[in-house]
């Protein structure tokens, strides 16, 4: 088995973009691309492919629409989309993940050649780069086809070793777990981070949250939360369920994203902060969770309180769902100075 490891490919910021060193315990100015990232993203990297066209008839072979292909495009998805969102927010990051030595992997690395993104990917000819291929007509999805296969154990172990080593050099570790296999040993990473001065934020996809024991923050959506704790009768019941979960798994914070109802932060010390949604019109929720995770961490990295970072993440989510496909938002769109 041949493994290949990337050196950083992200473009460096020009000298004029380097920020001055702020005093401790004071809010930082709006984030700028710095040469040394404090955020590490570890997770399932994937290529989102959009095949767009028009549907004017039904196939005579089967009762299915015929898509007349007019446009093809590719975007970074999963953990790679988190990295692009951080780049758009001018927050430098290191991205590590598993990709193949195939055309999809090459396209993905090309998409990730953006300012502030430092790539540390494990590549192997025995890995198939994950793809989500969407057939779209009039901006409506007709079908999604996934191209994926469980990665070989040797590749996973190499990825785990690299991630644990990189975590020692970063303040914030983002775990973007889409359940594709790269993070099958995620608990080893979290345990390693607990012995380091870094905090782990997780976007979970597993119904059994035991795998994320000891994380600083979990960011599930409603369906993921129901799969983990079951249904709840009201907000009081939900708070009690999450309090038990946090005590059991030693998780400091849970940020529950609730779609059109906004998001709610539950903290072990008893804080409960609800922020209503800001979207004027929901157009596409693809990758919205990636944007929330990226914006939340960006504003934490610049020195904001967790509560203010949640409000900023909610604002970013309201903007990104108004865009088609996997997308990102900028500081300018958020009404913040660069």
TrEMBL record:
Record bears the keyword GTP-binding:
no
Its Gene Ontology molecular function terms?
Answer: kinase activity
Checking SUPFAM superfamilies in the record gives: Ribokinase-like
- Organism equals Roseateles terrae
**Leader sequence segment:** none
Region Disordered, as annotated, extends over 1-32
Question: What residue spans carry the Low complexity bias annotation?
Answer: 11-27
The alphabetical list of record keywords is: Kinase, Transferase
Name the InterPro entries for this protein.
Answer: Carboh/pur_kinase_PfkB_CS, PfkB_dom, RfaE_dom_I, Ribokinase-like
* Keyword Transferase among record annotations: yes
Query: Which Gene3D superfamilies does the entry link to?
Result: 3.40.1190.20
Domain Carbohydrate kinase PfkB, first and last residues per copy:
39-328
Listed name of the protein: RfaE bifunctional protein kinase chain/domain
């Amino acid at each position: 088995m041949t493994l290949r490891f990337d050196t950083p490919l992200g473009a460096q910021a020009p000298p004029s973009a380097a920020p001055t060193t702020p005093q401790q315990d004071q809010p930082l100015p709006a984030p700028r691309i710095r040469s040394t990232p404090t955020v590490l993203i570890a997770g399932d990297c994937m290529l989102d492919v959009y095949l767009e066209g028009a549907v004017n008839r039904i196939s005579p072979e089967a009762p299915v629409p015929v898509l007349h292909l007019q446009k093809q495009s590719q975007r970074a998805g999963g953990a790679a989309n988190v990295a692009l969102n951080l780049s758009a927010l001018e927050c430098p990051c290191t991205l590590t993940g598993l990709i193949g030595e195939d055309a999809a992997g090459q396209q993905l690395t090309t998409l990730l050649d953006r300012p502030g993104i430092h790539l540390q990917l494990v590549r192997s000819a025995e890995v198939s780069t994950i793809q989500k291929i969407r057939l779209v007509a009039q901006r409506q999805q007709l079908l999604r086809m996934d191209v994926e296969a469980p990665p070989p154990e040797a590749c996973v172990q190499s990825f785990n070793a690299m991630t644990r080593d990189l975590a020692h050099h970063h303040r914030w570790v983002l775990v973007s777990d889409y359940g594709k296999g790269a993070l099958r040993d995620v608990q080893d990473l979290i345990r390693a981070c607990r012995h380091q001065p870094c905090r782990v934020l997780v976007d979970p996809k597993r119904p059994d949250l035991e795998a994320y024991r000891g994380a600083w923050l979990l960011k599930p959506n409603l369906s993921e939360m129901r799969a983990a704790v079951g249904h709840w009768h009201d907000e009081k019941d939900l708070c009690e369920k999450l309090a038990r979960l946090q005590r059991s798994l030693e998780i400091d914070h849970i940020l529950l994203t609730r779609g059109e109802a906004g998001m709610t932060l539950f903290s072990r010390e008893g804080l409960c902060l609800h922020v209503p949604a800001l979207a004027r019109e929901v157009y596409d929720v693809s990758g919205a969770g990636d944007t929330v995770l990226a914006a939340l961490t960006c504003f934490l990295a610049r020195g904001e309180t967790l509560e203010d970072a949640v409000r900023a993440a909610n604002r970013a989510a309201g903007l990104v769902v108004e865009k088609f496909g996997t997308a990102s938002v900028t500081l300018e769109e958020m009404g913040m100075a660069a």
